[in-house]
Amino acid sequence: MKFTTFSWATLLVLAYTNAFAAETIADAFKEAQVSGKIRFNYFNWQWNDLDDYNKGNTANNGGKTNPDSEIAALGGSVAIKTATLKHFRLQGEYFTSQPISGLSHNAVFAKSGADLDRGNAFNTSASTYTTYSAANGVVQTPDKELDPINVLGIANIQFEYDKSLITAGRQYFETPLTGADDTKMVPYTFNGYTAVNKDLQNTTFTLGYITEFKLRNETFFGGLLDNDSYTNKGLRTSGLTTGGTAAFNNLKKVTPDYLGVIGIDNNSFANLKLQLWYYQLDGILSDVIAEANYKININDLSITLGGRYLRQIDQLDGKLGSANIAAFDGSNTGYKTPTSLNSTFWAYRAIAEKGATKFQLAYSAVSNDADILSPWGSYPTKGYTATMKIENYDANIRSYSATVWYDFEKAGLFNGLSTNICYLFDNRDESKIQPKGDMRTITADVNYKFTNALSGRIRFGDHNDKGNAQYAKLGTPKGWDFTEYRAELLYKF
After folding, report:
1. Nearby residues of 259 by Cβ (< 8 Å), 6 or more positions away
2. Terminus of the chain with fewer CB atoms < 10 Å: N or C?
3. Is the dihedral angle over the CA atoms 310, 186, 89, 10 positive or is it negative?
4. Those residues with Cβ within 8 angstroms of residue 450's Cβ, 6 or more apart along the chain or in another chain
5. What is the pTM (predicted TM-score) of this model?
6. Over the stretch 331-388, which tens digit does the pLDDT of each residue have?
């Protein structure tokens, strides 16, 4: 089943004919709320292994012995939301990111900084910009011209009645596996239809029928599996490099037309929050997520115990033949059933809060089956063992983290200042071919609120990749042993 996607023009016509009389539409826009953001982002990467790896021939490394990278951009967004008339309103938000060439170099290695620039200039999986061979090492096109991002990311019509809200068109959609991940210049956004209902006391029902998905570094809404970073490559047309024409045609037949979502969030029991979610990716897989968090208050100390369970269910049932879909990289090394997406994820956390201090211990794991597919702006480990620029939901991984937050303003020491530090250890399956091994990550943020409108953040991350047994076989650099620095400014109006 495939629904026709609303265009922005269609939404305007519907809004006019169904909600607004000619004499009131002007008032609806006159009373509209206009808001915006001005942003500055700067990223700097100091690569450890890549610095040392050039096979003795600097020409093979783009003529540079040092592939350290930096990228900066200035941008933001402007949003408008009309007044509600006869239960209808319109929303729109336009985003821009303008890379600053003077603060950017060697940017093909910029990883997270890809989200400041449009398309392939920072897409490290695009063979035209960076390739690897055991004989020649890393070959790159450094200092490629930067392309700005300009996109109407939000454009929808909303119908609100009593405790129900229905949205059609381009929109944010926050669930455990979908989200804006609005930490850069341009967020992830979705095209489709969603509904939220709160008629039942202490309960929120969420429905979603998503047809398209926009990446943070693109100006168009594309397919639901068109994210290089988090989609198993065997499921992507561009990623299927083996298997022949038959496998390629089978893949095209199962390209998803929709992502269906059903969610229930309940707070009926004192101090207990329960969530149950179901995701259906058209003919490919389904996900079931159950989560519970229980809060215990002891005088001025609160302790929260939480857990999340995810079951990923393969629905292809061999339709792709021998295509390797279990692994992110499309390989079959180390996977019991490389042609299946069946897998299980679970995570636990304990949070203690007292005064200005918050402390969390967390653990997460994935069964020794398939990597968890999560390409839609959120991820299973979020709120548990997730930290800056680490995806830790591949098969047979065990992750451990400790995080502390401290609010200097709440402690009465320094207005506007807060900080957090996280230690993460990922114990990966060394038999798998993907270029990541056991990794120790330390991240730290310093946040400062200058005014109610202006805030800033300085971020640090040290990622120490121990490598795995496959590195020696492939003759590759580790590629994930690096230190990163970030600076952000955000002004809201």
Report:
1. 178, 192, 208, 209, 210, 213, 224, 279, 280, 281, 282, 376
2. N
3. negative
4. 416, 456
5. 0.86
6. 888 899 999 999 999 999 999 999 999 999 999 999 999 999 999 999 999 999 999 8
